[in-house]
Design goal:
Layout: E1 16-18, H1 23-37, E2 49-55, E3 62-68, E4 70-72, E5 75-80, E6 92-98, E7 101-110, H2 113-136, E8 138-140, H3 148-154, E9 159-172
């Protein structure tokens, strides 16, 4: 009697995985991104990345970090899964360097599951699965379509930061 040949079964690829670089990589790259966004060459990145400046709630320390954004007009949206977001909970005044100009804004953290799912739905409709995944910070395998529970699981630990730009304070970059 012949012995059946056992072939290893590879696990199914993850349908959802994080696409944001590690904190170590971000700490290495961010100083160069900050310098570029403050320079006359900001146009290379400033259609997708802005500088977000805020004060730590407990320490009072000033932070400036580059973040990807999307949005139109006076409302911008940022997705994050990093700890710095706690400084903006409950709403906070911030400054942004947006397309070479300093602006002030109000930041609100949104972490409600239903609101996050609705926001992802808007991103999927506007950018498609690949574009939405890049902006949200996850790779989405949508064949077959993701269930609501799978999408909610993918968003665990992620928040939306909604920035509302002020009209009255707009000054040229220095």
């Amino acid at each position: 009697m012949a012995t059946p040949v056992m072939t290893p079964v590879e696990p199914a690829p993850a349908r959802i995985r994080r696409s944001v670089p590690s904190t170590r990589v971000l700490h290495a790259v961010n100083p160069f991104v900050v310098a570029l966004l403050r320079s006359p060459l900001h146009g290379l990145l400033s259609k997708q990345v802005l500088l977000l400046a805020f004060t730590g709630r407990k320490t009072g320390k000033a932070y400036t970090i580059p973040v990807e954004y999307s949005g139109e007009g006076d409302v911008l949206t940022i997705w994050s899964g990093h700890r710095w977001c706690v400084n903006l909970r409950g709403g906070a005044p911030i400054e942004v360097r947006l397309r070479g100009r300093q602006r002030t804004a109000w930041a609100e953290v949104i972490d409600d599951r239903e609101e996050l799912l609705a926001e992802v739905g808007r991103y999927l409709a506007r950018y498609g699965p690949k574009g939405a995944g890049l902006r949200v910070g996850v790779v989405l395998d949508t064949t077959p379509p993701l269930s609501r529970a799978e999408l909610a699981q993918a968003l665990q630990g992620r928040v939306v930061i909604r920035l509302t730009l002020d009209h009255e304070v707009e000054r040229s970059a220095t």
